[in-house]
Design a protein that fits this description.
The complex is a heterodimer. By secondary structure, chain A is mainly α. Chain A folds into 2 domains: about 5-90, RNA polymerase sigma factor, region 2, helix turn helix motif (Rna Polymerase Sigma Factor, Chain: A); about 105-195, Winged helix-like DNA-binding domain superfamily/Winged helix DNA-binding domain (Arc Repressor Mutant, subunit A, Orthogonal Bundle). Chain A is about 70% helix and about 0% strand. Chain A is elongated and about 80 Å long. Chain B has helices spanning about 5-10, 15, 25-35, 35-55, 65-70. The chains are: A mainly alpha, B mainly alpha.
Amino acid sequence: MSEMTPETDARRLATESRDRVRFEEEALELSDQVYRVARHLAGSREEAEDLMQEAYARAFRSWRSFTPGTNLRAWLLRILTNLNIDRGRKKQRTPDTQPLEEGDYFLYNKLEESNGPAQDEERVVERLSQDDVVSALSAVPHDFRDVVVLVDIGDFTYADAAQILDIPIGTVMSRLHRGRRILKRELAEEAVGATDGR
Amino acid sequence: MAVDPCAKCEEVLQPYLDRELSNAEMLEAEAHLELCSYCRKRYRFEVNLRRYVRQAAAEQMPPQLKEKLSALRTPLL
């Protein structure tokens, strides 16, 4: 057992304080990237801001449990998704258990059907507005949205997403698959439903 | 009954783009895409859609939030 003299104690405190400052700086540098994901994990901008503050406060308190050299962005998002899931459970929404009839061509077919065949097929996607995308994303049920947002917007690997959400990788893949289809159904509703006089 | 090749192609769209298919499945999908402009258009659309969703969803963090996060830091002794 090492002897704790006032000198070693002071050195230990200095090291710890340096490590903590470094951790906090790195976490703050990542905050733009974390926010980009948090914004769509949460249902609204206000919720995202609350969630960010809660998550960062918790991260700064428990910085010692982060292993240096591992993925800090994933670690921060794990805290954030846990907080978000706790909140979500409080105001539980009905999970999406309906059979999904629409396949992966559904959105393209709908866009083509309502606007006529595309002259320039590269531009079909521009028939969707930025608002359509934001509203459609927020309409995807939590479990599916979390995976779609982490992988397709946050650029996390399946393995990272599995770790962040604490679910098996196979579940990440099946939720991603279904979540993307639900997103396309919602996008079709946003884009085409509106022009149908909804 | 023979499986509709376009329905089969639609079924593997996501795993194909995510590079999760076996070699044999991938070659089968590519052989069909080579011949079928209907599926080809929809595959290209999917690639563009993924990129578009990523861009459309990108939102800058409000500067005042960044300040609030900085204020949560442990004060230096």
